[in-house]
Amino acid sequence: MSTTEQTRSLLPTLPGHYYVDPALFEAEQTKIFARDWFCVARASDLAAAGSFQTFDVAGENLIIVRDADLHIRAFFNVCRHRGSRICNEAEGRVSRTFQCPYHVWSYGLDGHLVGAPNMAMMPDLDVAERALLAVHSREWLGYVWVCLAHDEPDFESSVMQQVTDRFGDPETIDGYGLVQKAYAFRHDAEIAFASAIIAASPKRADFDAHRRDALAGAKTNALLSANIATHLSHP
Predict the structure, then answer these.
(1) How many folded domains does the chain comprise?
(2) What CATH code is carried by the domain that includes residue 75?
(3) Is the model's pTM score more than 0.85?
(4) What is the pLDDT of residues 150-190, one digit of tens each?
């Protein structure tokens, strides 16, 4: 059997310029990532009310947060007053509100405007109209998915169906315990790194510094599992 016959079923690699052309990158952002569902986070990282993470998707920065009813919500990270970025941290937890650092407009975990300087003196201010702009969001199989499109593709017939076609029914996939394994990996990594650093660095300051670095590395490795889910929505 010739080499050609052996590799006939393989798809050819794209020419090199497809990987570095800014115009193609922009086209991918607007025609794929801004229109389709996109996997951004593990739901277990947003377990408690007020837990949030920020992500860049298709050129837009988003706030992903667990609200008071423990539902996942997603918003554009833009204040409705003067367009300032509200949250500059990559992740964290707030008690009840996000506050813009520019003019201290405050928004609840559901995105509603709940406070602003001299708000009582602005009776014509439409609080509902000034809520954060929401992004479509779903929580499924332990992951958080978002879609920037105004009319989002049907999640069931797109993402869920593609997952089912490729890997089997969701119940079977859920039985793999990917979420639990990812959490266990991070937990074990933290213990292992901490134990090693304690043995090598008796000073508390050294331990704390190394622990932060260790946790960052553990989180990066654990998040690699999210890449699998990210690509499920893009055959």
Answers:
(1) 2
(2) 2.102.10.10
(3) no
(4) 999 999 998 988 888 887 777 777 666 655 555 555 555 55
